[in-house]
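Worked example 3 (structure in, sequence out).
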């Protein structure tokens, strides 16, 4: 398929990433200095630099993989790597939006192995970035991106990539100049939009990458205030709100989830705070939001899928509204056996016993929350089937004035991991985030005995077979517990791990734990094993890998 006149080749993509990183490195401090919207926290330049650094590293990794051969990666591979790197490394509000801009471009440039039009890519980028922001505001990087795309679209038919990129760059500069008149907070501070200035630098690098010549920068009429405004001096947001009087926390995480779950997440997070940006697709997303209740934002992510690389930033102390002193805190844990109940109780948790075939009702969970006698409670249901029951209990307790964070752990080993990092002396939000991260990083498995012949993900099982379930699905069918357990461990550790947790049922001999510990020790370096007695529980063996 012939390449269009304004398409990018592989080398141009690589060069663009390198030059953009250099440009943002040079301008990082200046961009930080004019960062007054949406929060005057002086980090937009740094966040953009880190986002592009991740994108450039991903592209370099693709090229490194081809070094041993004579070929170079395709343009499609390069732009997809760029977009993925930006997505997983995006920082802050502007970095997250830039990641979506790059993803939008990649979607077009990768079509037909790199024959996609640059002007179409810029148009897709501007549209997708605007769609990712819950409440787009003019006078920001979104406006700069839209005007740049429109300018590129007006380039003459048949124009090459250099002419299209130059048109986009010039359009972006003009749009940047206009931002103080579009966004009152910028006008009052006497600055252009920081994110928009970063995008101009990235587009300038694109011009140089495709033409071999850096564009003439020219002076901006308002690039930085004579004195960087203090946060308290910034006011007059378009929505009628002082940006310094907003939420106290910035929450960012990567999320593995489906499209429908993400749409529900957008709605929930939109009700919790502002500056909501959700970018990505194909099962991987980057979520950014400003909230007062960081724990609730993370909990929403857990309910939508699997959040990880969770980062929470507390904005400047002078922005935070008065808050009560840290309250007494407790953890309520649902346990599948009395052995684990004793273990969790020793760690200071209030326990609810889930008897085989008799899961606790929401009323039992509410009673346990009340019994904990705490104003702040972390609830660990340890069973995916208890998700809605636990959510109902949490809502009822909240109606009674108790602050409850539900971490929807799906297995007892995830609850153990969360409880292990619980620290009541830190803030509630920080504690919930740490516990959520620990639970999310723990893969879980269990052994069960097949009651009848049945079809499974691993094939047909017969009554009496030993089933190895990993993350809830049958992965191994065996004839005895030891061999099945070893196969399950091998499957789980193939993806890596540092700690194996074994929870033995009441009738399981201790020799099984010894044999499995030896198996891990001999086959996997630097992986530790801990063993607990679960007592009377429905599964003979529970396994966790962190």
């Amino acid at each position: 398929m012939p390449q269009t006149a304004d398409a990018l080749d592989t080398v141009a993509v690589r060069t663009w990433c390198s030059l953009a990183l250099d440009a943002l490195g040079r301008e990082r401090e200046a961009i930080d200095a004019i960062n007054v919207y949406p929060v005057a926290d002086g980090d937009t330049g740094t966040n953009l630099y880190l986002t592009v650094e991740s994108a450039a590293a991903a592209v370099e990794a693709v090229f490194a993989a081809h070094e041993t051969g004579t070929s170079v990666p395709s343009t499609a591979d390069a732009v997809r790597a760029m977009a993925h790197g930006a997505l997983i490394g995006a920082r802050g509000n502007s970095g997250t939006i830039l990641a979506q801009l790059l993803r939008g471009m990649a979607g077009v440039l990768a079509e037909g192995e790199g024959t996609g039009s640059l002007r179409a890519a810029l148009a897709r980028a501007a549209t997708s970035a605007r769609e990712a922001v819950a409440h787009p505001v003019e006078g920001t990087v979104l406006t700069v991106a839209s005007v740049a795309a429109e300018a590129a679209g007006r380039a003459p038919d048949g124009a090459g990539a250099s002419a299209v990129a130059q048109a986009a760059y010039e359009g972006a500069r003009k749009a940047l100049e206009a931002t103080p008149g579009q966004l009152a907070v910028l006008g009052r501070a006497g600055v252009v939009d920081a994110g928009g200035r970063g995008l101009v630098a990235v587009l300038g690098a694109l011009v140089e990458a495709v033409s071999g010549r850096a564009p003439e920068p020219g002076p901006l009429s308002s690039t930085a205030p004579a004195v960087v405004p203090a946060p308290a001096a910034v006011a007059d947001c378009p929505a009628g709100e002082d940006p310094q009087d907003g939420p106290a926390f910035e929450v960012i995480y990567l999320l593995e989830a489906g499209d429908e779950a993400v749409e529900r997440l957008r709605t929930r997070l939109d009700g919790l705070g502002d500056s909501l940006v959700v970018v990505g697709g194909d099962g991987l997303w980057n979520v950014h939001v400003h909230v007062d209740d960081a724990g609730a934002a993370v909990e929403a992510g857990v309910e939508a899928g699997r959040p990880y690389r969770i980062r929470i930033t507390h904005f400047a102390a002078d922005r935070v509204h008065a808050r009560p002193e840290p309250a007494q805190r407790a953890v309520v844990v649902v346990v599948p056996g009395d052995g684990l109940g004793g273990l969790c109780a020793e760690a200071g948790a209030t326990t609810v016993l889930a008897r085989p075939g008799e899961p606790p009702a929401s009323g039992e969970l509410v009673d346990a929350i009340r019994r904990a006698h705490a104003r702040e409670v972390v609830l660990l249901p340890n069973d995916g089937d208890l998700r809605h029951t636990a959510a109902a209990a949490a809502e009822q307790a909240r109606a009674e004035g108790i602050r409850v964070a539900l971490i929807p752990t799906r297995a007892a080993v995830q609850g153990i991991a969360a409880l292990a990092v619980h620290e009541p002396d830190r803030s509630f939000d920080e504690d919930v985030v740490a516990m959520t991260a620990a639970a999310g990083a723990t893969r879980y498995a269990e052994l069960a005995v097949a009651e009848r012949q049945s079809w499974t993900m691993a094939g047909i099982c017969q009554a009496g077979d030993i089933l190895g379930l990993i993350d809830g699905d049958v992965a191994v069918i065996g004839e005895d517990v030891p061999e099945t357990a070893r196969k399950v461990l091998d499957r789980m550790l193939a993806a890596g791990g540092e700690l194996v947790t074994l929870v033995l049922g009441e009738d399981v001999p201790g020799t099984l734990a010894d044999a499995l510990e030896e198996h891990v020790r001999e086959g996997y370096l630097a992986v530790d094993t801990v063993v607990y007695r679960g007592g009377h529980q429905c599964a003979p063996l529970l396994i966790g890998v962190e």
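Notes: Residues 1-5, 221-243, 317-327 have pLDDT under 50 and may be disordered. The CA atoms of residues 29 and 100 lie 23 Å apart.
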